[in-house]
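User: two proteins, same treatment. go.

Assistant:
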Amino acid sequence: MISPIESIRSISALQNKEAVSPVQSEGASFGQIFQTAIDAVKDTNAKLSETEYLLATGQLDNPSSMMIAAAKYQISVDMLVQLRNRALDAYSELSRMSI
């Protein structure tokens, strides 16, 4: 049986103003998302440094794990840079709006 990812609300619930809100209380704020991206960069950098150390000392069993850690680090940095760029674009767009 196929189950829906999200429960379907009734039409009466959709007419209620409290049921439809632009910002959900269970959603993460931008600050939390940005902090999560920063933490991901820190974690992947620590993992990369650890695998580089293990490779340099000859303790690493699988040398390809260092390349995987480097790729994960690069992807997390790229994502953080894109988040920053999007935030700056949004801010500049908002600052150009006339009230």
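Protein 2:
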Amino acid sequence: MPTWDTGDTGFMLLATSLVMLMTPGLAFFYGGLVGRKNVLAIMIQSFVSMGWTSVLWYLFGFSMCFSGNCVDGTDLLGGIVGNFNWILMRGIDVTTSSAVTTNAGHISIFGNAGIPMIVFAAYQMMFAIITPALITGAFVNRVKFTAYLIFLTLWLTLVYFPFVHMIWGGGILWNWGVKDFAGGIVVHNIAGMAALASVLYVGKRKVVDEGLHSIPLIALGTGLLWFGWYGFNAGSEFSVDSVTANAFLNTDLAASFAAVVWLLLAWWLEKKPKFVGLLTGAVAGLATITPAAGYVTTTSAVIIGCLAGIVCYFAVALKNKLGVDDALDVWGVHGVGGMIGVIFLGVFGTVAVNASGANGLIHGGTSFLMKQIVSVIVSSVYAFGFTWVMLWLINKVTPVTLSKEEESIGLDEILHGERAYSEAM
């Protein structure tokens, strides 16, 4: 039996628990943003991902993401997806280390020799759970539950799992030198672009939703997301060291500065210091710092947070001006936030913070910035295009959207036969 590092292992179990908490936090966040008759319908989409994604992860998802690598030629499709050697978690037991290296030159790919693979698998599973749940905020009140379950399955299998392998699992983008500390591309950018494609495909809501039925629920969800994000970002170092601490602090700084900048912008332009704006700005800052958290200085994190508050605010304003019915601003916050965060990493990254990172533009890393930009373009085009085609195909099998009458009654009652609140309230 290997001797595990109990400190690192304990920390990763805590980080895994924190990331798990983010999915219920997202459910509360989204639940507060919709009207009273659609609360359960949006929340169940997050909670069902906790169950069904875990099933897929065990069956084949983990193996698609992390088995094989393109350096040794042991993955599939030239570094796009892993092989199926670990299907059903075959060959992984309590003695298996999470440290994986290539056979050619013994280049480290992921993990930590002091942490069991089962802990690494559990941690990464929590990322897989929340990523498709992010998309649901865009097409709220419009999509049938059966269609969503098919969407969840196909999107994870054909979008999320390949990008995890390509960037984190020893695939083609990892080998090329693309960096993404905790999910700017793998989580936020591809989810945001999928959200945009979903909204454009399903169209606007047929019935105007009163929305924002509970700002306290939004605040609760934001608090849980913010709290869980420390595990999301700091945990992505897979050990307890100075990079972990730096990622932890950078996470809070970026969220805080983005929240304040968004609040001030709303106060100036909308004449009111809005609570929902403050909360949304914090989430934008969290999404934007995610790919760079363990690769940049604290000063850079402050700059990134400020830029996140400005850019994401105006992205949401542009979406509203164009009349795109991204109900809960998934594209403007997560899509744009993840996108610019990856690019900002290409500007501010420095090996002085993390030797495993890369120098960005201001430190002479012009080629690294170009790689980050190309990765954003490729991931955006693929996630958008595949999501659109997938929804079109799903609609051939089962209707994706609801009728005007069904929207008017509310999805909680029509789809689930339940109500979040009694009529007396």
